Amino acid sequence: MPRPSDTKQRIQSAARELFARQGVQKTSLQEIADRLGITKPALYYHFSSREELVRSIMQPLIDDGERFVLEQEAKGTVDPRELLDGYFRFHYRHRRDIMLILTEMSTMVELGLIETVLTWRARLAVLLVGPGPTLQQAARAVVALGGLQDCTVQFPDAPETDLREAAVNAACAALGI
User: What CA–CA distance (Å, rounded) separates 162 from 177?
Assistant: First the structure.
């Protein structure tokens, strides 16, 4: 896989910072270009639209998430605690982008990214509680997976190891394990 150019990475970094501060819809490509001291056509050389830029920022999260879910599905037997620990680690690695998703929900819906995340959760829930779960089992899986994800952004100052242990234990408790 080719490495993105330095300019492309600089554009993504500046965009991520501006998106976080003022929102995706309120950030123009011209502002991003101005921030970097490049022309708007130079920015367009790398990204044809704001949507393409947002998608490029989110693509590592999407690729990593899909890889994680596929790896879990490929296992013969899933250890729920191990799955939850891995799910926490995935979200912790991508918590900056998770914040962007949470603050820019409508943009992420338009790009189909929310549906992707919900599909991952549904696939992981099947691994945790089996196909055709009762409403109670399904609700426990939603609380476990959603709560675990939320912990990665809710407690930004907590040490990762302590937070992971607390969040995984809480997710296990939600599942009744």
Answer: 20
Mean pLDDT by 10 residues, the chain (177 residues): 71 91 89 94 91 89 93 93 97 87 76 85 95 96 95 94 98 96
- Position 24 scores a pLDDT of 87
Look at residue 89 in the predicted model and tell me its pLDDT: 97
How many whole angstroms separate alpha carbon 114 and alpha carbon 106?
9
What's residue 69's pLDDT? 96
Q: What three-state secondary structure class fits 138?
A: helix
Alpha carbons 47 and 6: distance in angstroms, whole number: 14
The answer to whether 133 and 50 are in contact (CB under 8 A) is no
Give all domains of the chain, ordered by start, each with its CATH number. 1-48 (1.10.10.60), 58-175 (1.10.357)
C-alpha dihedral (6, 9, 11, 14), degrees to nearest 10: -120
- CA trace torsion 1, 98, 10, 18 (10° rounding): 160
**CA Rg, the chain, in Å?**
18
51: number of Cβ within 10 Å: 13
Query: How many Å from the N-terminal Cα to the C-terminal Cα in the chain?
Result: 40
Per DSSP, the three-state class of 82 is: helix
